[in-house]
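Lecture 7, part 2: worked example. A protein chain together with adenosine monophosphate.
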Amino acid sequence: MAPRVMELKSTIATVGSHSALQILKGAKDEGFRTIAICVKEHSSLYRHFNVADRIIEISSYKEFENVEDDLMEEAAILVPHASLIAYVGTDVVERIKVPYYGNRRILAWESDRNKQREWLRRAGVNIPKVYENPDEIDSLCIVKFHGAKGGQGYFLAKNKEDFYDKIGDAREYFIQEYVVGTPVYIHYFYSVMRGELELMGFDRRYESNVDGITRIPAIHQEGLSVTYTIVGNLPLVLRESLLPEVFKIGQRVVETSREICSPGIYGPFCLETVVTPDLKFYVFEISARIVAGTNVFMNGSPYTYLKHGKPMSTGRRIAVEIREAIEQDRLKEILG
Ligand code: AMP
Ligand code: AMP
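Predicted complex, written out as structure tokens:
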């Protein structure tokens, strides 16, 4: 095919962290000019891998809004990820004028755990029980804190006494039934241009210290507290017979999102699940944008290979979608 991508004038920009290597590399592969907005300590990484045509250095994420005019002049499209949300903040993200890939209004549904639960409940997927009051805890539960902090500070509690022993001064927490099974993080991509839900891959997380605790004998485990600080991710493939259910769940989540927050969710998103021994998927969280677990498939996953027949990361898939929207003069439909 002729390299029509070379004719593209558009620029894709993202914050230099999280999944930026993948996003920028994918954008370059599709012929876009690329910009990484980095705090100073991170810029050498993006220089080293040569994924950014331009690096805009900021001294802290608080300065992010100052680069807005620069990005507008470059006609850049901003691709969001967790670092943008976690460090720049949803309030800034909601008000910036730079064209943004995705439905920004879905952020409010994602960041509020009660709204998230409402979304998943309406989608008819299995969700873990939630304890509104610590005194009601009657099974093993996981206590979470606000924000996309990658599991930092979470703890397990087996009853209310255990909870009060561990909670300390924290006032804002979320208590969820701990579902015992295997964690499976499902990466999806809903394409507005093609009107289709794609399966991009699966990962599982590698977390400290929970993934270390199982490496020592039980006798030494006693008394240690389990934490879930994300360190990295591992690729996963699923039993093929589970894939139809994976599509069904993803489809329902997309359809419900249109009812709650039109035009709904599109682009990459992730359902964080635990699969129980009876092969039921319990969805304990939803990420309404690219997740870092997709970094394990920078060169494509088995499923994207099947679908696209060439290396297709989620980052590159985003760029393909934007390119098709530009070519079809439908950019408005994917910028929210
Ligand atoms: P970072 O840019 O690595 O500091 O991450 C930004 C946010 O995304 C933090 O809240 C992290 O906890 C979260 N995050 C980063 N990497 C991952 C990952 N591999 N899996 C899940 N969450 C992550
Ligand atoms: P999160 O930051 O919500 O993705 O969760 C961090 C860690 O806790 C991951 O290892 C998850 O597998 C685990 N986890 C979170 N919620 C649950 C749950 N309801 N049941 C079992 N494991 C969970």
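Residues 128, 142, 150-151, 154, 176-179, 183, 205, 207, 228, 272, 274, 284-285 surround adenosine monophosphate (ligand 2) (CB under 6 Å). The chain has three domains: 1-100, 111-125+180-309, 130-177. Keep this in mind for problem set question 3.
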